[in-house]
UniProtKB/TrEMBL annotation:
Keyword Transport belongs to the record: no
Organism the protein comes from: Anopheles maculatus
Transmembrane annotation, as ranges: 59-79
InterPro entries attached to this UniProt entry: JMJD6_ArgDemeth/LysHydrox
Keywords, alphabetical: Membrane, Transmembrane, Transmembrane helix
GO MF terms, alphabetically ordered: 2-oxoglutarate-dependent dioxygenase activity
Name used for this protein in its record: Cupin-like domain-containing protein
Amino acid sequence: MDEVHEKMKNFLINSDTSGIELGEFLANRFPTPIAPYLALVPPGTGQWIRRRLGNPWKAGPAVLLLLLLSLLVLLFAAVNHTTIGGGEGQRWRPLLATLFANEDCILTMPAQLQKAFRPPESCGFCRAVHGTVPRLSNVSPGEFARNYAYRGGPVIVTDATVNWTAVDRFDYWFFKRVYETHGNGPKAERCQFFPYQTGFRDIREALSLPESRVQYNPGTEPWYFGWSNCDPAIVKVLREHYQRPYFLPADSENSAIDWVFMGGPGLGAHMHVDNVRLPSWQSQLKGAKEWILAPPPECFYQCEFLSVVVQTGETIVLDTNKWYHKTNVLPGPISITVGAEYD
């Protein structure tokens, strides 16, 4: 039990101290399955509540919001873990899941709250993963579909990029030229952009760095960012240099939107879980990147934490909607990866 709590503490590195203390307080006094969900309260929540409780004009709304959050957490935990009358809870779960699955939201949930209300996962996707991530080559689409594609666990395919010209052609200056030529339309502006720790406002700013910083000359700041290529003109140019991975099931379709992540040693994506629809693949075109994978908190008692290095030319496949993941670019060349979802 202590080991699991220590893992949870290390895992929730983005949470403020009061949030972790709240989770431990409730876990110690109310040893029920709801504790992992309470630990998912977004970073800074404790400070936000303290500020408003100290202001009489803001205390009322803060208390109401806190009560609402508590009720929703209890509801999620009860539906996932409680059975009534010989399995009623099991029957309610799919009913609740389908009741609201196709309904449009009046208001979009803020990103900071999405993690708090993430539906709990069944731990079957990670329970059988122990120690090392399988590495495959020359795997047929049929074998991949039967054994790997939809099980959620991570797997690395070592030969998917053999015939891709992207391995040689893609670099910072290639993307800069593509976006100078095709990236001035409104569609390119709407594509999602991840600045991570750089402070960049958009892809144009990220692709306007001085050469000294691009080359990681001494005294310059490191950089790492990612974006989606949702503009059809840019998609067409980029996909001339890579194809749908050969191992994907024959009846699966690749997403129309691909993702690119690029940056130098010492940086990467923070620990997070994605909010996309499907599992995904990500090919390491240049450099090497370490992936740190963590099961969701409700699976800490059953599943292991993993660390795997994806080398140049390798492709990692996993369900990033289930696995929390963090990446670190390793010393060496600038890391460039491209990936997409598949069904």
